[in-house]
Structure formats: C-alpha cells, structure tokens
Amino acid sequence: MRWIDTLEAAAAENLPEAVHRYFRQGSAGGISVSEAVAAWSAYRFRPRVLNDVSTVEIGTTALGTPVDVPVLVAPSTMHRMADPDGEVAMAKGVGAANSIIGISSNAGTTFADLGATGVPWWLQIYIVRNRQITERMLDAAVEGGARAVVLTVDTPVVGRKEDVGETVWDLVQPGHLLANLPKGDWAEADLAKADDLNPDVIGWLAERTGLPVVVKGVLRGDDAKRCADAGAAGVIVSNHGGRQLDGSIPTAQALPEVAEVLAGTSTEVYVDGGIRRGEHILAALALGARAVFIGRPALWALTVAGSSGVTRLLTDLATELDHCLRLAGYRHPTALTPDLITRRFAD
Ligand code: FNR
C-alpha cells in the first residue's frame, strides 16, 4: 500500500478522537469535503508520446522563492496536537524538502520562532474586527521574516461544524492556538472575523507589510479578476478544504475558470483541496496552477512521523509528479497546457 494512503489511519491511532475529527471534517453536511479528492481523480489525460523525457525538472518558483517541488503546505491550526513542536516541526519538515509553508494566523508558535527555522513561510491572515490586532500581527510576521501574506477571504464567519460529543475545543490548551495574538485585554468581538471586507484590503495589506498578497479562497473567475485588479500577487483556488460554505464546487472544477481569467497576467495561480497524488498535481499544473498546496496529509504525516514524515510526504509527491510528467510526455511543468486534460464535469 502507498505510504501516503496509510497516514490518516495511523494518525487516528495517535490522536484523541476529537482532534482526528477536527482535522478531517468538513462543514455542515460534509458534501464539499467528500467530493474534493474524487473531483481531481475524475480528470482524464491525453498524454503525449515520442517526446524526450530523459531529464525532467519539477522545481519552480513561488512568488520568486525557488522550491524543489511545486507542492507547498497549506496553513492549518493545532499543529501542537500533532507534534509537541507544532509549527516548528512542520516547518523543518517542509524546509528539508525545499518547499514553503503557510502559517495560520491562529498558529500556536510565535512568528519569531518560525523565522528562526530559516524555512520560507507565508503568513495566512484572518482580518479581525479590531484592526489594531491585525496590524500588530502583520508587523510581527514581517519581523519574523514572512515572505508573503495569504489573505483568507472565504471566512466572513466560520463554517458550521456539526459535532456531537467531545470536540477539539474541549481539549485545546493555552499554547495550542493564537501564539501571535498581541498582548491586550481583547473582547470576543475584537477577535471576530471582519465581515465587511472588499478588494481594497489587498492594497492595504501590501502597503502595510511591503509583501506580496495572495488571496486564498477564490472559486470564480470574476472574483479572481477583482483580486488581480486590486493588486494581488497570487490567488489560491480553495474552498478551505470543504470547511466553509458546504456544497461549494470542488477546486478541481473551479481552477480552469480562474486560470483562464488570469492567464497572461502577473498574478500567480495556486490551488488546494483534495490533492493527494502525483496525477492530481499533474492535472492542477496542466490547468494553470503554478503550484499546489496540501492540507490534511501534512497534518497526518506530522502526527505519524514528525518533521521527517512531512519531508517524506513532499518528496514522495515529488517523485510521483516526476513519474507522471514522464508518462504524460513532458519534461517540465511550465510546458504543460490544458489540452492534456479532458473534463468530466457537467456544467
Ligand atoms: C485548515 N485550513 C485553514 N485555512 C486557512 O486559511 N486558515 C486556517 O487557519 C486554516 N485552518 C485549517 C485547519 C485544519 C485542521 C484544516 C484541515 C484546514 C484550510 C487549509 O489551508 C486548506 O485550504 C485545506 O486544508 C486544503 O484541503 P486539503 O488538502 O486538506 O484537502
């Protein structure tokens, strides 16, 4: 059996049931989370033959940072429940594979400690109602060496999880979350997500931090265009791993429309959600993504084997992608074009 496919079950044995459920679950009825992987697997390839594939190179750059593999780690929370060293362990694993990690603004590790790892990291930000909190968090991230700001835009309110019994919130301890919340006597309302955002926030973030801004949670071409027009350096086609509006379309379906709108612009396209195999990555790159992000598999790998598990996950996916590229008749992802794919979605 493929090692990556063993990870979730192995992680489940090491995690409290409520934490395992928190990592794996989607929102509401769980439709989007359950469709994500199958949507990538529904694509069919039209491989090229009689092309020299004796040397293949899968390295690329993401916002100018070189990566050995076009697979980055998506921002997520509660890393300390998977490994005592939390985000630092995840970052070290990512660094050893020469990739990039997204760090949640809810992370349980300080930006200074992350910066000390030397691993390239992008801050994921939720803008909260009290902008002072967000501003101070942004300043700390810049200080800690964040190379980009990932603005999550699919979360004006947090998606409803239909839990029964013990939940992760019953187990969460100080230090598991919000290590970068600035000191202050904040009320709950200060910390609620800002639900009045518009594209101007992209320019505001870029100006405040001096960093490129990547908008995460885009599922439509028209929204991608609004982001690009407002100065976004990138967009991540994402439905938040099926954790926000349930029934949102699979990212495998959303990607072509977004990539088409942004083709020929300087705004880079990324995608996440249900990407589990080299074939899925091949499809994403052919449809216009510069790189993909993975979420849950990194949490499982961290739980099962710490930093080295995360490195193995990324290098195994790199090996699979290399293999798939050769079979498809290509030497480099930049040569891929959408005609490699046929679509099976009914529009
Ligand atoms: C997430 N995700 C997420 N996204 C974000 O922008 N900020 C966050 O704090 C979190 N937290 C989070 C926690 C957990 C447990 C999961 C599973 C996910 C979403 C994440 O960045 C990404 O979009 C999805 O996980 C990608 O889908 P896959 O690869 O998990 O299928």
Pick out the low-confidence regions.
Answer: none
Q: Give a list of the ligands.
A: ligand FNR
CATH topology: TIM Barrel
Largest pleated sheet: 8 strands, parallel
In DSSP terms (H or I, runs of 4 or more residues), the helix count works out at 14
Strand order of the largest sheet: 4-11-10-9-8-7-6-5
Give helix % range.
Answer: 40-55%
Portion in strands: 5-15%
* Apparent shape: globular
User: What's the end-to-end separation, in Å?
Assistant: 35 Å
Number of domains: 1
Name of the CATH superfamily: Aldolase class I
User: What is the C-alpha radius of gyration, as a whole number of Å?
Assistant: 19 Å
The total of beta strands comes to: 12
Under the CATH scheme, which architecture would be assigned? Alpha-Beta Barrel
Q: Could you please describe the fold and organization of this structure?
A:
It is a single chain. By secondary structure, the chain is an alpha/beta fold. The protein has a single domain (3-342), classed as TIM Barrel (Alpha-Beta Barrel). 42% of the residues lie in helices and 13% in strands. The protein has an 8-stranded parallel beta sheet. A two-stranded antiparallel ribbon has the order 1-12. Strands 2-3 form a two-stranded antiparallel ribbon. Helix 1 (3-14) packs antiparallel against helix 14. The longest helix has 33 residues, at 296-328. The protein is globular and about 65 Å long. The protein starts with a helix and ends in a 5-residue tail after the last strand. The mean pLDDT is 97. Bound molecules: ligand FNR. Ligand FNR binds next to helix 2.
